[in-house]
């Protein structure tokens, strides 16, 4: 019973656990740090596997390094052997070698939602991985394991190699054709705000007001982490996608305008979540 909320997780039962696989943002707004804040806000336990480190603030990224695949493998084993997970979010995927390691490990997860937010550039425009070999590995290895891919329009064009495509519906269908169960294209409406969801059968437009607070650093990370947490808690996909957008939209509107001198971070404290 979900008490009419559409959420089947038992509030008195064991807490849902989510794992984020991504990179550190020293500024605390995006990446692993943003994901863990979003997990906490959504009421799930958060674990993390760090695959890279960025020197970053609200103005941009000044240096990056990736973590060796051996250490990534140790982290995955440590989390999965003991804590386990009810949802996985994948963010920055630096190299083909790292991606194939993730495929090798995640293929054994049984019926656990996997959300892929294929980060290639930050909100401030800095490059965060994603060379051609890595894009091929995402297409051939990760997308077939993915429940929901959440690229923005630019990332969707790169993933599908439909560089001129402007229609989010076509891009979403192409991503599902590549193997993902569903595609949720973020910020899909020029001039408006909202996302385009193709659930594998039907298209859904998720729209809302466009916020102009200047606080959107970490919006994409918060969005995909919330989506992962909602799915881990048993929320149906369309409702999870709508709730994630609405929550992030408020987090932009009521963002951390006092933090940093560039694109300020989102602040996930506003609004109420459905539990
Ligand atoms: N100005 C805005 N007003 C309202 N909602 C927004 C705005 N910008 C983005 N969003 C919403 O925020 C969520 C994240 O989308 P976005 O496209 O910013 O992710 P992204 O490009 O992956 O971000 P990032 O660069 O942080 O990874 C989506 O639900 C999107 O609709
Ligand atoms: C580490 C990291 N991951 C993801 C993003 C996406 O915004 C970012 N800016 N930094």
Characterize the structure shown:
- The chain is of the alpha/beta class.
- It has one domain: 3-Layer(aba) Sandwich (UDP-N-acetylmuramoyl-L-alanine:D-glutamate ligase), CATH 3.40.1190.
- 35% of the residues lie in helices and 20% in strands.
- It contains 8 helices and 9 strands.
- It has helices at residues 31-41, 69-83, 96-106, 132-142, 153-160, 168-177, 219-232, 237-253, and strands at residues 17-25, 45-57, 60-66, 87-90, 114-116, 148-149, 182-185, 193-198, 203-208.
- It has a 9-stranded mixed β-sheet, with helices on both faces.
- β4, α3 and β5 form a beta-alpha-beta unit.
- α5 (153-160) packs across α6.
- The radius of gyration is 17 Å and the shape is globular.
- Mean pLDDT is 92; it is low at 1-9.
- It binds adenosine-5'-triphosphate (ATP) and 4-amino-5-hydroxymethyl-2-methylpyrimidine (HMH).
- Residues 22-23, 25, 30-31, 54, 56, 91-92, 119, 122-123, 128, 220-221 line the site of 4-amino-5-hydroxymethyl-2-methylpyrimidine (HMH).
């Amino acid at each position: 019973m979900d008490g009419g909320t559409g959420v089947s997780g038992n509030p008195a039962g064991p807490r849902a656990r989510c794992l984020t696989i991504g990179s550190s943002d020293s500024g605390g707004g995006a990446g692993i740090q943003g994901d863990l804040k979003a997990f906490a806000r959504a009421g799930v336990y958060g674990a993390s596997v760090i695959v890279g480190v960025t020197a970053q603030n609200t103005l941009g990224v000044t240096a990056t390094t990736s973590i060796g695949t051996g250490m990534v493998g140790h982290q995955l084993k440590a989390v999965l052997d003991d804590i386990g997970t009810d949802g996985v979010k994948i963010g920055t995927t630096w190299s083909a070698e790292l991606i194939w390691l993730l495929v090798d490990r995640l293929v054994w997860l049984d019926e656990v939602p996997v959300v892929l937010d294929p980060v290639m550039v930050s909100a401030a425009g800095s490059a965060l991985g994603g060379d051609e070999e890595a894009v091929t590995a995402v297409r051939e290895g990760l997308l077939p394991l993915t429940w929901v891919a959440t690229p923005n329009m630019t990332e969707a064009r790169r993933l599908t190699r439909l560089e001129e495509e402007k229609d989010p519906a076509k891009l979403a269908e192409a991503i599902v054709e590549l193997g993902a169960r569903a595609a949720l294209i973020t910020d899909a409406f020029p001039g408006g705000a909202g996302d385009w969801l193709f659930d594998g059968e039907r298209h859904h437009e998720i729209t809302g007001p466009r916020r102009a607070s200047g606080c959107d650093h970490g919006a994409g990370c918060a969005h995909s982490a919330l989506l992962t947490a909602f799915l881990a808690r048993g929320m149906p996909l369309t409702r999870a996608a709508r709730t994630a957008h609405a929550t992030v939209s408020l987090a932009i509107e009521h963002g951390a305008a006092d933090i940093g001198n560039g694109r300020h971070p989102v602040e996930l404290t506003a609004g109420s979540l459905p539990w």
